[in-house]
Design goal:
Largest sheet: 5 strands, mixed
Strand order of the largest sheet: 1-7-6-4-5
Helix content: 25-40%
Oligomer: single chain
Strand content: 25-35%
């Protein structure tokens, strides 16, 4: 038995934030000292490394669970199913619902429960829960749905990734330019044909790597030190990703018995364009090959890094034909892969 994605949907906020919107920010070093060069230089360097030119922020009155609900509606419609037949709602996020203008996380009840309520699902046997797995949360949710379905505990699940990272960033940290908001949702059920998941890989590296992404105080020493924001050690994450993600992808592909030349697309977490390119280059190098042209669709240039939402949103856009010079065909083999806080790495090979 295999599982397949029978429906997909995403919600991309309409509020577009350009790099030039950060012109007036007061960026500081970790010790609170000012940069020795103007914001124009900071922004240009940022664009050259990450590839990000725009990102999307949620409308002020919307929370992560709202975005998750909108994406779920689209996935349910795309799959043409009755929501009452969903056995599990698995919602990946990192910070819960964070009201605009605050930094406090609200996760009671769970965001998955809130989505079930918004969908007006009456069936009490539709179990709703959240997972915290960093940016790879949506992929991990798909792996959990796979386990539920194969064990006979479920026939149909909806797996969602939703985040409003714009509300947990330190405006004085240049890394704040990376983050964005969004949601992606997928209907997962058993596959009775050749489509679906062929293999998977998942791991948590926490011996030395647990603190690479964390909650920390603002770089502005005048702000309340007890108010926390998302922080990261970018260089360590970059080196970790280049070391571990290609290896996980290779292990996953080898278990699928699919040849590297038969892989048509690689959908990787949209964290940093240069990092993603380096990961793909190293992955193909493990097979003594170079990456084919257009193997890696990208959405980061316009959407930024929306954490758990990047991969399902990218898949949705690809299926809809909304990524220039990119398309999928029936039977194409895809590798989904991600890396993020934990530090967590996961992947799965999928026949479309």
């Amino acid at each position: 038995m295999k599982i397949k994605i029978s429906g997909i949907g995403s919600y991309i906020p309409e509020k577009k934030i350009s790099n030039t919107d950060f012109d007036k920010h007061v960026f500081l070093n970790e010790d609170g000292t000012p940069f020795g060069y103007p914001n124009e230089v900071v922004i240009n360097k940022f664009k050259g490394i990450t590839g990000i030119e725009h990102r999307r922020y949620a409308e002020d009155h919307l929370d992560s669970s709202d975005l998750a609900f909108f994406a779920s509606q689209k996935a349910i419609e795309n799959a043409n199913i009755d929501p009452e037949t969903i056995d599990y709602i698995i919602l990946a996020h990192n910070f819960g619902d964070v009201k605009f203008g605050t930094t406090q996380s609200d996760m009671v009840p769970s965001l998955a429960t809130r989505v079930k309520h918004k969908l007006q699902i009456k069936n009490p046997k539709c179990v709703a829960y959240d997972i915290l797995f960093g940016c790879p949360g949506w992929i991990e949710g798909v792996l959990q749905a796979n386990a539920f379905i194969k064990s006979g505990m479920a026939k149909r699940c909806i797996v969602i990734g939703a985040e409003t990272l714009s509300r947990v960033v330190d405006a004085h940290d240049r890394d704040s330019m990376i983050y964005s908001d969004g949601a992606g949702a997928s209907i997962i059920e058993a596959s009775d044909d050749e489509t679906g998941m062929l293999s998977y890989e998942s791991a948590t590296f926490a011996y030395e790597e647990a603190g690479y992404l964390f909650f920390g105080k603002s770089y502005n020493p005048d702000l309340d030190p007890d108010t926390r924001y998302i922080k990261m050690y970018g260089r360590k994450i970059y080196e970790f990703a280049l070391s571990q993600v290609p290896a996980a992808m290779k292990s996953c592909l080898d278990k699928s018995n699919i040849a590297i030349d038969d892989v048509k697309k690689i959908l990787i977490h949209q964290a940093n364009e240069k990092m993603d390119e380096a990961i793909i280059l190293r992955f193909y190098k493990l097979y003594g090959k170079t990456p084919p042209k257009d193997i890696m669709p990208m959405s980061i240039h316009e959407l930024g890094n929306s954490s758990v939402a990047t991969v399902p949103t990218l898949f949705d856009l690809l299926i809809q034909g909304k990524i220039e010079n990119q398309e999928l065909h029936k039977g194409d083999v895809i590798i989904f892969a991600s890396v993020g806080a934990g530090m967590n790495v996961n992947a799965f090979v999928y026949r479309y």
